[in-house]
Amino acid sequence: MQVARILQWVCRGCTARGMANVHMELTSAFLTDQPSKRFPEMDYLTFFLAILHVYRALCEEMFWDTTVKLAENMSLQCIYSSLDTLTQMEWFKINTTSRELIAIFSPIYGGVVKQPYTYRVYLLNSTAAPNDMTLYFHNASEADIGFYSCFLHTFPHGHWEKVIQVVASDSFEIAAPSNRHIVSEPGKNVTLTCQPAGKWPVQQVTWEKIQPHQIDILTICNLSQGKSYASKYQREIWSSCSQDMRSTFIIMPHVTASDSGLYRCCFKASTGDSETFVMRLTVTDGKTDNQYILFVAGGAVLLLLLVILITTIIVISYKRRRRQKELFKESWGAQNKVSFLRAVICPLFCIIISCNVGPFCSQQPYCSPFNYLAM
Predict the structure, then answer these.
(1) C-alpha torsion 311→314→320→322, nearest 10
(2) Residues 6 or more apart from 184 whose CB is under 8 A from it?
(3) Quick one: which of 225, 201, 206, 222 has its CA closest to 273?
């Protein structure tokens, strides 16, 4: 009876998956090779060491759905995708021995933020997105690093919980460059596959979606047991999980533009070996395509008009220069003819007719006999 009470006290805020291991740890610590005594007479040093042992087991079994990078203004996303009716929601910070209530929300009575988070934390629940229970932090600090629980009470399926881990920015893992690029249209079913190159036996496969500020676990497959864990990701994911499988895949039905991004699959073996693949998914948006087509068409029309304008200017300039050359040639030819008449033909003609005949020659200076003799 005392062990059960200690178990209940220690495991407040513990994940359900770790309860069995904690129970075994306590049973081993208190019941194995122990005389039949009442709890108050137990050696307190043994009790303290046993509690430390239990905490180690708890930490090893802690599981989270999302990892968020600490930032001054950050958001802990919690979106409930089911159609169940929400009756109440609570945000907790998971401490070592208990859960600290941060905020509580009721669709009927509204939301309340507890001290010391008042004026630093807020909810933006609205009728437009009643299933969005995202928690927003303002002026966050290193004291906010840790685990958080978004705990929802729903009808008729009961409670629903998402665990989020907040880590320091230098501890946030950055995704490697993508190995493959997949492009899809909206509304299609997209399948992402990967297969390890190593021949070692795979023990666990994890699929994640990588974003600059957070990493969401999509699914975890334990191949040794042939069981998978589907995380609390806000969209539906289909996955494969069976013993001795050599490749893995996930299917995202009816993809949208919000599904674009980096996806990572990680293989882990019992020997400690691991292998990671990163792929990029791009879901084109129909509106974006139309805008792009209009932009390209408009650019092509403007380019065509510019080419026509430049061609017209070149043709007009060429014709103008050609006309100027023709006019110059005509003017030059006329001047040469007049000069030739004045210099050669007219004097000879005037000499022949004694410069007294013809009104043209009589008006020329070359037609004067004195002028001509003076030459």
Answers:
(1) -110
(2) 190, 255, 281, 282, 283, 284
(3) 201
Task: Tell how strand 274-283 and strand 227-230 pair up.
Answer: unpaired
- Judge whether 69 and 167 are in contact, CB under 8 Å: yes
Residue ranges covered by each domain of the chain: 2-61, 66-171, 180-284, 285-375
Q: What is the pTM of this model?
A: 0.61
pLDDT tens column, 309-346: 999 999 898 888 888 877 777 777 666 666 666 666 65
Written as one string, the DSSP assignment of 296-353 is HHHHHHHHHHHHHHHHHHHHHHHHHHHHHHHHHHHHHHHHHHHHHIIIIIHHHHHHHT
Tokens read off for 308: 């026509």
Check whether domain 66-171 has CATH 3.40.50.300, yes or no? no
For the domain made up of 180-284, give the CATH fold. Immunoglobulin-like (2.60.40)
Confirm if 209 and 233 have CB atoms less than 8 A apart: yes
